[in-house]
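User: Teach me something about this protein's shape.
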Amino acid sequence: MRYTQSMIEIVRSMYSDHRAKEIAQLLGVSEVVVYRIAVKHGIKKPKTWRTDPRSGVFQKGVRQSPGTEFKKGQRAHNKGIKVEPHVYDKMSRTFFPKGHKPFNYKPIGTITIRRDSTGIPYQFIKITEKYWELLHRKIWMDAHGPILRHLIVTFKDGNSMNCNLDNLKLISKRENLQRNSIANIPEDLREVVKLKNKLTKKIQEHGKKQAK
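Assistant: First, the predicted structure itself:
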């Protein structure tokens, strides 16, 4: 489309403080044409345009149509009005049937695999319609009861997918932290650290016996 000089001048004079839709209506063209003219001839909006009420841009904390919003306690205009049978019949065709479940619904007892932030996979089991539990925790609690807040269930062989009860062990979060710390030090020093921890534990146990 060829842009006449008069079109260009109108866009140039109005673009800074009018919406493209308004200019387009005046020229009898689409908004795209107005934008193309502005880009081609370097015509730009001022930086303050986005905060100008005339821009139509949503302003956070500012009501766009004052007086049109519902007020607290206001009665809805259609409250108590019954839908005509023929209208309801058309609407009902779009309703979900009673007991409908989405295509990705998982029944209670379903087991899925999720990875933590480090990429380690863990199995989860669906306990209720809204709650999933780590499978290894569920197996431990079914066998031994609730787990205290300062304790966690770990895997003896280090395999997070092996949730057999005989492979699970209850340890403190502090002990788990020490384990993870050991994994980050050179292999030739790991045994020294483990022996030190065992010795410290024995000393603490001996001290408790002496105190009784």
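Now, about its shape. Residues 111-174 form one domain. The beta strands are 111-115, 121-128, 131-134, 151-155, 168-172. If you'd like, I can walk through any region in more detail.
User: That's plenty for now, thanks!
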